[in-house]
Design goal:
single chain, about 45% helix
Length: about 325
């Protein structure tokens, strides 16, 4: 691996507020690499013109002729990439200046892999540092990652990954119609091939904000987070070698991803009947972390999905909110 064989692709869609910061972070590397911006047929074409005007020949600009969606836009990045290695950066996230240097260093320490990544810090919508999800620490300078490390989810946040383009293409590219777990699905496939390596250095910054256009926010509000994650959990189990093969234990899975009562109160009234029944049933399997949760479980056991919907209506009315509001 060398810098001449690395590209950073910034994917964007109508987030003019953040995209220039993202592009600047890709360009502001201690070890410069190619940078391209892949715009997913945004209804705001002037944003692209501003980027070309500001960064000029320092970036390659690509605009999809049609809307492809989050993960198929990642495939558009693959199609336009002219180097062996690629890192994808969303338009609201950032890379630290040492990202490329740390990836090259990590590849030297753990050669022959298809996926390298580092630690991530978190900021809010205004760019202020905030606590993020608890990620497993890397005790040494770096660690090897296997499939058993990602059974219940990726132990690393997005962005900050660098992957071999030919390896991704060999397993069919990113799932174009993935609703939520397209990155987890691909990292699992790459790890199944050669494993992965993670440095303990912070190489990326993830922006956590609950805006309507953010894909993860839409997935959460529609009640797709747990069912989609459970499907990917099954896929990871299927990739394990026969000697390590584990059976699906839904209760054990829910110890990691129990159904939040607050989610049901806030969004239960706007869920489809099918997803409402799914969440009500899954709630009953979740290990209760405290007595209030256990009480809500027992009432749901008696009243079923109708009880959850009624409580959601009451809760939203009490808080002056309408069904489906962000």
């Amino acid at each position: 691996m060398n810098p001449e064989n690395i590209t950073i692709a910034v994917t964007c869609f109508s987030r003019r507020k953040y995209v220039r910061q993202a592009v600047a972070s890709a360009l502001n590397q201690t070890v410069p690499v190619r940078v391209m911006v892949v715009e997913d047929c945004s209804p705001d074409p002037e944003s692209g013109e501003e980027l070309k005007e500001q960064f000029g020949s320092r970036i390659q600009y690509v605009r999809n002729p049609r809307r492809r969606g989050v993960f198929d836009n990642w495939n558009a990045c693959l199609e336009s990439c002219q180097t062996e290695w690629l890192s994808i950066l969303h338009d609201d996230d950032l890379l630290t200046p040492v990202f490329v240097a740390e990836m090259v260093k990590l590849a030297g320490q753990a050669p022959g892999l298809d996926l390298y990544f580092g630690m991530t810090s978190f900021i809010n919508a205004d760019g202020e540092p905030i606590p993020g999800p608890a990620l497993p620490p890397v005790t040494g300078p770096w660690t090897k990652i296997t499939l058993t490390d990602i059974i219940f989810g990726t132990p690393f946040a997005f962005p900050g990954q660098l992957f071999r383009v030919s390896a991704v293409k060999s397993v069919g590219g990113f799932c174009a119609n993935s609703y939520y777990c397209g990155d987890w699905q691909m990292w699992a496939k790459l790890i199944a091939r050669t494993g992965a390596a993670q440095t303990r250095e912070v190489v990326a910054v993830n922006r956590l904000h609950d805006t309507p256009e953010r894909a993860t926010s839409r997935v959460y509000r529609k009640g797709r987070t747990i069912p989609d994650s459970l499907v990917q959990h099954k896929r990871v189990l299927a990739l394990l070698p026969p000697s390590d093969r584990l059976k699906l234990d839904r209760v054990e899975y829910l110890r990691h991803y129990l159904v939040p009562v607050r989610f049901l109160l806030r969004h239960g009234d706007s869920l489809s009947p099918r997803l409402l029944r799914y969440h009500a049933g899954t709630l009953l399997l979740s290990p209760a972390p405290h007595w209030r949760y256990a009480v809500f479980q027992q009432l749901t056991r008696l009243g079923g999905a109708r009880f959850v919907k009624l409580m959601s209506k009451i809760w939203n009315r009490a808080h002056g909110r309408k069904s489906g509001d962000a």
